């Protein structure tokens, strides 16, 4: 089974996403931009995003039919779940807000350096940065599927209670955790190339 991530830039694309079930999906979740007032960590192209579609399929070969229905920047990814989020009711919006982040690998970094810094160094320290976080899903992009899509290498979903997300004192850990994150950042990403925004996730079909 393979996973496709679709960054969707139109309302029509998000509205069409549930129809992907007709293509024989093994799993489908649709995250729609939350459009919160005074949202923290709204970065890069985050304000323009309409949502993220996560699709589990038997074969990546289905992707042309997928993007025909849901025009998007589509990527083949491998998923890791360092911190499993609570299981939401099928067909209902997840209670927790999702903070979605995506970014490319800086050209100065080798593959080994990038993944070591992102996975081995930053992932553990991110728990200290967000001590109230309720889930962390980390997708590494194997390759883009759609022509002219930005060279994204990382797509990350972090889950928070809404009240924790909107309060910086609850969203972040102490000063030391913030300082460590800023020190680690250049080892896996360039701040100017990071995009992020809050989204609401609905699981239409649990992966099988």
Topology (elements, then pairings):
Layout: E1 2-8, H1 11-16, E2 27-33, E3 51-57, H2 63-69, E4 73-83, E5 97-104, H3 111-129, E6 135-144, E7 152-160, H4 162-165, H5 168-171, H6 175-184, E8 195-205
Antiparallel strand pairs: 1-3, 1-4, 2-3, 2-8, 4-6, 5-7, 5-8, 6-7
Helix pairs in contact: 3-6
Please give a structural write-up.
The structure is a single chain. An 8-stranded antiparallel β-barrel has the order 1-3-2-8-5-7-6-4. The longest helix has 19 residues. The protein has a single domain, classed as Alpha-Beta Plaits (2-Layer Sandwich). α3 packs antiparallel against α6. The model has no long low-confidence stretch (mean pLDDT 96). It starts with a strand and ends with a strand. The chain has 208 residues and is an alpha+beta fold. It is built from 6 helices and 8 strands.
């Amino acid at each position: 089974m393979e996973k496709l991530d679709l960054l969707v830039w139109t309302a029509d694309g998000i509205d069409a996403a549930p129809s992907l079930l007709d293509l024989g999906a093994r799993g489908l979740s649709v995250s729609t931009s939350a459009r919160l007032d005074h949202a923290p960590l709204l970065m890069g192209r985050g304000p323009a995003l309409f949502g993220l579609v996560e699709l589990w399929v038997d074969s990546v070969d289905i992707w042309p039919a997928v993007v025909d229905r849901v025009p998007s920047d589509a990527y083949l990814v491998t998923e890791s779940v360092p911190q499993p989020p609570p299981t939401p009711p099928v067909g209902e919006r997840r209670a927790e807000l999702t903070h979605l982040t995506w970014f490319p690998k800086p050209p100065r970094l080798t593959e080994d350096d990038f993944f070591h810094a992102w996975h081995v160094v930053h992932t553990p320290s991110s728990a200290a940065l967000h001590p109230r976080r309720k889930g962390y899903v980390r997708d590494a992009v194997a390759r883009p599927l759609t022509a002219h899509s930005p060279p994204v290498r990382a797509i990350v979903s972090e889950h928070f209670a809404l009240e924790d997300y909107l309060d910086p004192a609850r969203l972040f850990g102490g000063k030391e955790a913030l300082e460590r994150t800023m020190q680690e950042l250049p080892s896996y990403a360039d701040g100017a190339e990071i995009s992020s925004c809050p989204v609401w996730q609905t699981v239409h079909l649990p992966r099988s």
